[in-house]
Automatic annotation (TrEMBL):
<keyword id="KW-0624">Polysaccharide degradation</keyword>
<keyword id="KW-0119">Carbohydrate metabolism</keyword>
<dbReference type="InterPro" id="IPR001701">
    <property type="entry name" value="Glyco_hydro_9"/>
</dbReference>
<keyword id="KW-0326">Glycosidase</keyword>
<dbReference type="Pfam" id="PF00759">
    <property type="entry name" value="Glyco_hydro_9"/>
</dbReference>
<feature type="domain" description="Glycoside hydrolase family 9">
    <location>
        <begin position="31"/>
        <end position="484"/>
    </location>
</feature>
<feature type="active site">
    <location>
        <position position="462"/>
    </location>
</feature>
<dbReference type="InterPro" id="IPR018221">
    <property type="entry name" value="Glyco_hydro_9_His_AS"/>
</dbReference>
<keyword id="KW-0136">Cellulose degradation</keyword>
<protein>
    <recommendedName>
        <fullName>Endoglucanase</fullName>
        <ecNumber>3.2.1.4</ecNumber>
    </recommendedName>
</protein>
<feature type="signal peptide">
    <location>
        <begin position="1"/>
        <end position="27"/>
    </location>
</feature>
<dbReference type="InterPro" id="IPR033126">
    <property type="entry name" value="Glyco_hydro_9_Asp/Glu_AS"/>
</dbReference>
<dbReference type="GO" id="GO:0030245">
    <property type="term" value="P:cellulose catabolic process"/>
</dbReference>
<dbReference type="InterPro" id="IPR008928">
    <property type="entry name" value="6-hairpin_glycosidase_sf"/>
</dbReference>
<keyword id="KW-0732">Signal</keyword>
<keyword id="KW-0378">Hydrolase</keyword>
<feature type="active site">
    <location>
        <position position="471"/>
    </location>
</feature>
C-alpha cells in the first residue's frame, strides 16, 4: 500500500501546497490600488526641486545645493530610506529594478505606467549628473554619521553635504557596475518613448561600464568611512560587473557584451550565492535575466546560467532545507539581516519573472525528485505579496496607506516631523528628537511605503526606534512595482 508521501506526492509538494493555500482570513486585494500607492511612494523620497505635478504635497524642495562645493549640480535623485543621505549604490539598484518592472510588466500597469516611467526618470536624471565627469562617478551626497545624529526634515537639513566619488585611483566597480546596469536598463524603457534620451542613457552606460571594468575594486575599500556600515559591499564587485554587462547586452545587443559574459562567467563567479538578490548581491538576478535568452532558444552557450537559475528557485522553495531562506509561521520568506522585506520583494520578483519565462518555453524547474511548475512559482510570489498587503497573523498591511491597519510610526524623518506647510519654522537637528520619541502616529502619511517588516515569528513593533522593522526603502518598493502590476492584471 502506497504511503501518503509516494513519488506522486513527495513531502515538498505537500508542504508547498499547504503554504500556498490562502490563510483563513484572506481577503480580496485591490492590487491596482496597491500599485498606485507603491509608485506614489517614490515621490515622497524625492530630493531636489520638486516638479509642479508632485502629488505628495507635504514634501517640499530640499538639498538644492548638492554638489555646489565642487562646482557640479548634483541635486535631485532619491533619499534611499528614512534619512537624508543620497547613497548612489541603492539608488542605482532601485532604478534598475523599476526599469525591469516596466520592461517585463508594462502591459499590466494601465494608467500607472506613466507614473512608473517618471519614477525611473527621476533616478536616471540624477545618475546622468553623477556620471557627467569622465572617469568619475559621484556615489554619495551627505555625511551619514552627522545625518543619523539628527532627526530633521530634508527641507531643513543643515548637516554637511560632502560629495564622495570613485575614480581611477579610488575604484568602485560595484557601484559603477550597478550604475551602468541602471542606465542600460532605463535606456530600454525610453527606447520608444524618448529615443534621444534612450541613446544618451545607453552611451553613458557603456562609458561607465568601461570605467568600472578597467579600474577594478570595491568602493567599500576606497570610501570605507563614508559607506560602511551603511551600504558596505560585503559581496565584492564581481557580480556588479557581470550584472552591468548583462543589461548592456540586453540594451545594445552588441556582441562584445555577450562575449564578456561568456568569458567572465567563471572569473566573476556567476554561480555563487545563488539565493541572494538585492542591492549588494546580483547573482540570482543575473542568472534569471540571462535564462530568458536560453529558454527562448537564442543562447544555448549560456545554459549554465539556466542551471543556476533553477538552483536558485529550488533553494528558496519552502520544504527544501536551506539555511539561508526560512519561512515564518505565517508564510513570509525570511533571511537574516536587516529590513527583511527587501529580500521578500526582490526574491518574489525573480520567482514571478522566471515563471513568466518558463511559461513561454513550456518548462518546469527540476528540484531533485520534485518538479516546480511556473504556476507554483507565481503562487509563491503571490503569497508573499498578499502577506505584505495584510494576509498575515497580525492582519496588518505593511504598505503604509493600504487597508485600514498599517504601520503608523514608521522610521522616516519627513513623515514623522510636521510638514513645512504645517510648521513653516525651521526644526533643528535635535529639536526633532521629541517627534522621534513621540508615541503619536506620524503626521504625514508616506503613502505606499513598505517597511522592513516583521521578524521571523511574524511579530512587528510599530515603533520608530525599531528601524530594521519600521523603516521603508526605495529598494523594497522597486521590485514590488512589477509584482503588483502583474497581479493587478491577472487577479
Amino acid at each position: 500500500m502506497a504511503s501518503s508521501t509516494s513519488p506522486l506526492f513527495p513531502p515538498i509538494a505537500i508542504l508547498l501546497l499547504l503554504l500556498l493555500l490562502p490563510p483563513p482570513a484572506a481577503t480580496q486585494h485591490d492590487y491596482y490600488d496597491a500599485l498606485h500607492k507603491c509608485i506614489l511612494f517614490f515621490e515622497g523620497q524625492r530630493s531636489g526641486k520638486l516638479p509642479p505635478d508632485q502629488r505628495l504635497k507635504w514634501r517640499h524642495h530640499s538639498a538644492l545645493h548638492d554638489g555646489a562645493s565642487i562646482g557640479i549640480d548634483l541635486s535631485g535623485g532619491y533619499y534611499d530610506a528614512g534619512d537624508n543621505i543620497k547613497f548612489g549604490f541603492p539608488m542605482a539598484f532601485t532604478t534598475t529594478m523599476l526599469s525591469w518592472s516596466i520592461i517585463d510588466f508594462w502591459r499590466n500597469m494601465g494608467p500607472e505606467l506613466g507614473n512608473a516611467v517618471k519614477a525611473v526618470k527621476w533616478g536616471t536624471d540624477y545618475l546622468l549628473k553623477a556620471t557627467s565627469v569622465p572617469g568619475v562617478v559621484f556615489v554619495q551626497i551627505g555625511e551619514p554619521y552627522s545625518d543619523h545624529n539628527c532627526w530633521e526634515r530634508p527641507e531643513d537639513m543643515d548637516t554637511p553635504r560632502n560629495v564622495y566619488k570613485i575614480d581611477g585611483s579610488h575604484p568602485g566597480s560595484d557601484v559603477a557596475g550597478e550604475t551602468a546596469a541602471a542606465l542600460a536598463a532605463a535606456s530600454i524603457v525610453f527606447r520608444s518613448r524618448d529615443p534621444s534620451y534612450s541613446r544618451l542613457l545607453l552611451n553613458r552606460a557603456i562609458s561607465v561600464f568601461e570605467f568600472a571594468d578597467r579600474h577594478r575594486g570595491e568602493y567599500s575599500q576606497s570610501l570605507r568611512n563614508a559607506v560602511c556600515p551603511f551600504y558596505c559591499d560585503v559581496n565584492g564587485y564581481q557580480d556588479e560587473l557581470l550584472w552591468g554587462a548583462v543589461w548592456l547586452h540586453k540594451a545594445s545587443r552588441m556582441r562584445e557584451y555577450r562575449e564578456y559574459i561568456f568569458k567572465n562567467e567563471v572569473v566573476l563567479r556567476a554561480g555563487d550565492s545563488i539565493n541572494e538578490f538585492g542591492w549588494d548581491n546580483k547573482h540570482a538576478g543575473i542568472n534569471v535575466l540571462i535564462s530568458k535568452e536560453v529558454l527562448m532558444g537564442r543562447a544555448e552557450y549560456f545554459t549554465s546560467f539556466r542551471q543556476n537559475a533553477d538552483e536558485f528557485i529550488c533553494s528558496v522553495l519552502p520544504g527544501i532545507s536551506h539555511p539561508q531562506v526560512q519561512y515564518s509561521p505565517g508564510g513570509l520568506m525570511f533571511k537574516n539581516g536587516g529590513s527583511n522585506m527587501q529580500h521578500v520583494t526582490s526574491l518574489s520578483f525573480l520567482l514571478l519573472t522566471y515563471s513568466k519565462y518558463l511559461s513561454h518555453a513550456n518548462k518546469n524547474v527540476p528540484c531533485g525528485s520534485f518538479s516546480a511548475s511556473p504556476s507554483m512559482l507565481r503562487q509563491l510570489a503571490k503569497r508573499q505579496v498578499d502577506y505584505i498587503l495584510g494576509d498575515n497573523p497580525l492582519a496588518m498591511s505593511y504598505m503604509v496607506g493600504y487597508g485600514t491597519r498599517y504601520p503608523r510610526r514608521i522610521h522616516h524623518r519627513a513623515s514623522s516631523l510636521p510638514s513645512v506647510q504645517a510648521h513653516p519654522g525651521r526644526i533643528g537637528c535635535k529639536a526633532g528628537s521629541r517627534y522621534f520619541l513621540s508615541p503619536n502616529p506620524n503626521p504625514n502619511v508616506l503613502v505606499g511605503a513598505v517597511v522592513g517588516g516583521p521578524n521571523v515569528s511574524d511579530a512587528f513593533p510599530d515603533s520608530r526606534s525599531f528601524f530594521e522593522e519600521s523603516e521603508p526603502t526605495t529598494y523594497i518598493n522597486a521590485p514590488l512595482v512589477g509584482l503588483l502590476a502583474y497581479f493587478s492584471a491577472h487577479h
